[in-house]
């Protein structure tokens, strides 16, 4: 006997559909599910550039929240304490001979101390060493005293006796012209004789300094991006929305190819870049409806500004294979990039070049609490306290301690069907042919709600009709004659 579906079973099916619709991955543009790797309770999360709106969350950090399975807001802190990196630079400094100074074959003036003055005011960081440049004809051993000052009046000795050697014998040369300095900061340096003798002639001096530079987040690279359209002399490439491109890699398809190219970025003078990107998608959708290729945009609606010019190459030489390095950009945001060449694009290979863009994103640390699944939300207004500092979030952490090693990765919405991790690459849709954008989770949620209402109406109708049929069957025998 075939069992008839009961209203309880329909109610269970409706509850499953509603649960699916309300999962964090179904929200699409407003949130994404987090996957935790480790025991916690602190997790480090680097925002990937593949999120639908990571730039908006970074521009307005107050709109970003981390939620647990109960919808509770979890405390988090931005990783703005970038570890400093020591960077050494070698810089040429101005060199001045003291008036009346005694050099080789010169006689000193009465009361004048022979020496040289080095102007180090333009050197940033702490002074590490001094490299002197002597004429090729200089021969001898010299002992110099190095003094430092900030006002040319008060001098302090920083190196009492520094040997400088320039010798040559039997075709061999011995030169020692580097003076090591204790890390110091000074606006001027003075070289003088540490003991009676001859002051060497100098033709130049360089100072090596060490300065601490904050190290930002690691660069994240997109997957190769195909051009959306090409002309005889240029190709246009779409970019993810609001992506601050810092480096650009031009990928040639054939070896032994070399070309002079120029990179331009699209700029809409009346609308922000994000609006310009939506406008470009609207034009592509119109082209799909017309079953034609996207028409060229009028010059009045889109302008192009130059970003970089360089020689790109892929050379396969007998000793090694050479490829052009990434092009540095200023981190500006553009909806599209244009690759223009002085020669026809067809001469760059059988296929047009592809691009890879790199950008930096921020990292945060959050304290996991409660059941999962955990969610990263960036569209809803904040419903909890603002972001904390690392010191407030982690009271027992030292100032220079590394971030937690346990990681959290972001899962994109079901419509994207892509898992994104904070690695160096991500997946970008390739617009080789125009197609409509993937729908967000909101239409599906509305469809589930309307379907649930229809199911409840049918269940109510079934419950109302069932008692009437039973009463009719009960009265049927009494009506017979």
TrEMBL record:
The lineage of its organism: Bacteria, Pseudomonadati, Pseudomonadota, Betaproteobacteria, Burkholderiales. This is Transmembrane protein. Pfam families: DUF3999 (PF13163). It comes from Caldimonas brevitalea. Residues 1-28 form the signal peptide. The keyword Membrane applies. InterPro entries: DUF3999. The chain crosses the membrane at residues 444-464. Keywords: Membrane, Signal, Transmembrane, Transmembrane helix.
């Amino acid at each position: 006997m075939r069992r008839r579906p009961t209203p309880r079973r329909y109610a269970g099916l409706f509850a499953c559909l509603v649960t699916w619709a309300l999962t964090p991955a179904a929200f699409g543009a407003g949130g994404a599910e987090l996957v935790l790797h480790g025991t916690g309770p602190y997790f480090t999360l680097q925002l990937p550039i593949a999120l639908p709106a990571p730039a908006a969350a970074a521009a307005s950090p107050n709109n970003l929240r981390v939620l647990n399975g109960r919808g509770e807001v979890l405390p988090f802190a931005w990783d703005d304490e970038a570890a400093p990196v020591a960077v050494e630079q070698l810089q040429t400094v101005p060199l001045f001979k003291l008036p009346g100074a005694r050099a080789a074959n010169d006689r000193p003036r009465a009361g004048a101390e022979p020496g040289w003055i080095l102007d180090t005011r333009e050197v940033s960081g702490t002074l590490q060493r001094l490299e002197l440049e002597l004429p090729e004809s200089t021969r001898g051993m010299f002992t110099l005293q190095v003094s430092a000052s900030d006002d040319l009046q008060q001098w302090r000795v920083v190196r009492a006796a520094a040997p400088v050697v320039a010798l040559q014998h039997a075709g061999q040369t011995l030169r020692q012209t580097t003076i090591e300095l204790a890390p110091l900061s000074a606006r001027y340096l003075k070289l003088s004789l540490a003991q009676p003798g001859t002051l060497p002639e100098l033709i130049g001096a360089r100072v090596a300094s060490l300065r601490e530079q904050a190290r930002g987040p690691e660069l994240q690279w997109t997957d190769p991006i195909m051009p959306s359209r090409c002309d005889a002399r240029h190709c246009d490439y779409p970019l993810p929305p609001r992506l601050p491109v810092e480096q650009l890699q031009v990928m040639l398809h054939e070896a032994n190819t070399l070309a002079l190219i120029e990179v331009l970025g699209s700029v809409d003078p009346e609308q922000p870049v994000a609006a310009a990107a939506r406008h470009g998608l609207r034009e592509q959708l119109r082209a799909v409806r017309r079953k034609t290729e996207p028409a060229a945009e009028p010059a009045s609606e889109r302008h192009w500004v130059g970003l970089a010019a360089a020689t790109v190459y892929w050379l396969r030489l007998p000793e090694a294979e050479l490829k052009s390095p990434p092009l540095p950009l200023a981190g500006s945001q553009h909806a599209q990039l244009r690759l223009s060449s002085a020669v026809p694009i067809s001469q760059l290979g059988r296929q047009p070049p592809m691009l890879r863009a790199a950008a930096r994103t921020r990292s945060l640390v959050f304290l996991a609490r409660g059941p999962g699944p955990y969610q990263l939300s960036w569209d809803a207004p904040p419903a909890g306290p603002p972001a904390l500092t690392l010191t407030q979030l982690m009271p027992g952490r030292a100032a220079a301690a590394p971030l937690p090693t346990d990681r959290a990765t972001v899962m994109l919405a079901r419509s994207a069907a892509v898992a994104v991790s904070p690695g160096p690459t991500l997946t970008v849709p390739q617009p080789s042919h125009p197609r409509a954008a993937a729908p967000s989770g909101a239409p599906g949620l509305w469809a589930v709600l309307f379907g649930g209402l229809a199911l409840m109406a049918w269940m109510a109708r079934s419950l109302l009709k069932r008692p009437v049929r039973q009463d009719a069957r009960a009265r049927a025998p009494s009506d017979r004659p």
